[in-house]
Amino acid sequence: ASPTTPPCLSPDPAVWGSWCFESQLFPHPIALDQFDATFYLLDGGRVLALSQFAPPVTLLAPGDVVSGTRVLEPLDLVAGSDGLLVLDRAGDVYRYDPTTAVWTLDRYDRPSGIRASHYYVALDLLEQDRYLLDAGYRYGLRYQAGSETEANQESGWLLPEGQLVDIALWRTAEGVSHAYVLMQPPFSTGEARLLFYEAGQEVTHFRPDVDITFNRPREVRVSDTAVYVLDEAGARLTQLDPRTGRVQNNIPLPHPLTTFWVSPDDSQLVLAGRDTLYFWQQPEKTQTIRGGEPLTGAQPHDTAVWQTFIPRLWPVQGAQFPNREIQMPGAPRHYRFGVHEGVDFYWAAGKEIRAAADGMVARVMHGYTQPYPADYFNQRQAARQAGYTPPDALDFYRGRQLWLEYSDGTVGRYAHLQAIDPTLQVGDTVTQGQIVAWIGNSGTPASETNQTEDAHLHYEIWLNDTYYLGQFIRPSEAREWFAALFTASTDEQ
């Protein structure tokens, strides 16, 4: 069997039922919900509809157009009586009506402004109210359907410093709103926290049992009687008392899974992993479902692909891992209506940049010249007119660049450079740790008026010149995967 063959048989078929699909239909799903017997699943930026006895149907994918808006990269979804809502990394929310099979724009966020740094990483629905979790400014936002950036919006609550992971909402029979926020402490130190808010105020006596420390958190869900947390990179599912946080149950999983859904009355618990849905305590649901259109080629969100990459060093000696999600791959770039595709390392202009791994020069821009203000204006207008960042505009904003092709087939793109080693030419080989360029701000909006402001290295890793690493996975996963791929720079570089 190939490494992508789905695990169709549960280790305990008396406990778990499963829908086993064809290989490579959804290798790493990151969101799952259910409504009216249809499961909605998010994998590879695609929204899939799953039903019994039928292969997945793609409802939405990057590049589709909804109400004149180009879909960039769906990040989260939630289903309810108001339809299916899908959050794009750009901040937009799309709504799908299953009865008419029509997509509309529930919230448009792209005209946010050049300095906007909000980054909505999770979405949930509480009856008719929509809530977004903002990792940029660390707060919850409630909005009304059809609202734009500033209209008909209300901040929910401020959150402590840290990396926000997920949000789950509930309303009691008495009409009191509950919110559970899963977050990682700053700089990914210590265990993750689960915060409980009642009517917008934190309930400080809510604390999971002392023997439970969350690690590598993925999702939180809530039902009438319990709150569930998936952590340990999908290897553990814990059921907690929704008022106190005390552990009610530890549900043994067949193997690490990536997302889950629980029914409001706790009667159904469904988890998703590679090409499979698992049904807790419903073994009668076991079946194999044939057909579908598998993904072709190496996928950036497939853990089996990530494991083939060679280790590398941080390209800036002494740099720390970025502590803001806005500096990581997948974050929105509001000034150009697009998505960030790399990691930003901030340092003073002129700091040395080193080759992250042995490689060959694939592109070198020795002849780069500073654009005129009119060039920046034209690029902004082109992005505004298109509603996203076209490829030529994206290349413009990278400024002076150096591309290195590594032995594992990936390409490292070093951007915003002040200068490049003048001896380097296309086809030359470089060794890990070799000084190849210097930090600058070329291509950035700040470079219009100042050659040192906002200086940083923008470093991308590309797979088959098609996908950037960090694409189609949660922000928390991107942070973990990059940390595992890189080792810190050392004085011996």
Instruction: Tell me the fraction of residues in β-strands, as a range.
Output: 35-45%
Q: Could you give the distance between the termini?
A: 41 Å
Q: Please compute the radius of gyration using only Cα atoms.
A: 23 Å
What is the β-strand count?
41
Largest sheet: 7 strands, antiparallel
| SS summary, helix count | 4
Shape: globular
Features:
single chain; about 500 residues; mainly beta; 7-stranded antiparallel sheet; disordered N terminus; disordered C terminus
Structure overview:
The protein has 4 helices and 41 strands. The protein is mainly β and 493 residues long. The strands form 11 sheets. Strands 31, 33, 34, 35, 37, 39 and 40 form a 7-stranded antiparallel sheet that branches. The relative contact order is 0.13. Mean pLDDT is 90; it is low at 1-6 and 489-493.
In short:
Helices cover 8% and strands 39% of the residues.
Secondary-structure map:
Elements: E1 16-20, E2 31-35, E3 38-43, E4 46-51, E5 54-60, E6 65-66, E7 69-70, E8 74-80, E9 83-88, E10 93-97, E11 102-107, E12 120-126, E13 129-134, E14 139-143, E15 153-158, E16 163-171, E17 177-184, E18 193-198, E19 201-202, E20 219-222, E21 227-231, E22 236-240, E23 247-251, E24 259-262, E25 269-273, E26 276-280, E27 287-288, H1 303-306, E28 312-313, E29 332-333, E30 338-339, E31 343-346, E32 352-354, E33 359-364, H2 373-386, H3 391-398, E34 402-406, E35 410-415, E36 417-420, E37 429-430, E38 435-439, E39 456-463, E40 467-468, H4 475-485, E41 486-487
Parallel strand pairs: 1-27, 28-41
Antiparallel strand pairs: 1-26, 2-3, 3-4, 4-5, 6-7, 8-9, 9-10, 10-11, 12-13, 13-14, 14-15, 16-17, 17-18, 18-19, 20-21, 21-22, 22-23, 24-25, 25-26, 29-30, 31-39, 32-38, 33-34, 33-37, 34-35, 35-39, 36-38, 39-40
